[in-house]
Amino acid sequence: MSELFQSIYNGLIQTTPLEAVAVIMGIVSVWYSRKENILVYPTGLINTTLYIYLSYKGHLLGEASVNLYYTIMSLYGWYLWTRKTPDQTNYVLQITHSNTKEWLQQLLFFGVIYTTLFLVLTYAKSAFAPEAIPWADAFASATAYTGMWLMAKKKVESWIWWILTNIASIPLYFTKGYAFTSIQFMVLLILAIAGLISWKEKAKDIKNQHESA
After folding, report:
1. Residue 64 CB contacts under 8 Å (≥ 6 apart), including other chains
2. 62, 148, 157, 209 - which has most CB atoms within 10 Å?
3. What CA–CA distance (Å, rounded) separates 140 from 138?
4. Please, which residues bridge with residue 155 across strands?
């Protein structure tokens, strides 16, 4: 146990200013998303652009692709979250649960992304990135791809995928020497659970409002 804490301490000591900024912006972004605040996107963009570089440097090619995807989807989500009804009184997009068809779509989406990333990363490991961890990197990445897609659409289930992403990313980044990032994912895991609870309540309130209207 003492060796584990010593390893964590050594990792924190070696944390670069770039990683520190990325971690802080990541936590702030998730905090804003739980609050359904549009600032989730500008803060998130800082986090994702920094992690494109950090992930590539750490041979986490799947995670690098995720952060590039995050950057693109953040711009898309920013647009969706700011759209208003013609009378400009309400936002078009509201928090809702996924129906059966949407659940099947996201499971299929996850499966395709995971398989594709796993095959690509397996090739990368044998060709030029021997330190890659295909199955773990692909899982963390595919769940994140799915979570970001659903977050842009304000689906409650996005938090379930974020929870899976965080659980997978904690050991993944730690093994690559990013101890501070690993701790970030511990914090994000707690925030994701809180986000799931919060969005479930908001979706319930919205549904009740529509039924009573």
Report:
1. 51, 52, 55, 56
2. 62
3. 6
4. 96
For 62, 104, 116, 123, 148, the CA distances from 119, given in Å and listed in that order, are 11, 23, 5, 6, 22
Residue 7: pLDDT above 70?
Answer: no
- Indicate the helix (H) or strand (E) that contains 117: helix 100-127
Cα distance between residue 43 and residue 57, in whole Å: 22
Residue with tokens 């809180």: 194
Report which residue type is found at 149. W
Closest CA relative to residue 197, chosen from 148, 162, 153, 145: 162
Q: Are 66 and 145 in contact (CB under 8 A)?
A: yes
Rg (CA), the chain: 18
Give the model confidence (pLDDT) of 104-126 as tens digits: 999 999 999 999 999 998 998 88
pLDDT digits (tens, 9 = 90+) for 44-97: 999 999 988 888 887 777 778 878 988 999 999 999 999 988 877 788 899 999
How many residues in the chain?
Answer: 213
91/187 Cα distance (integer angstroms): 30
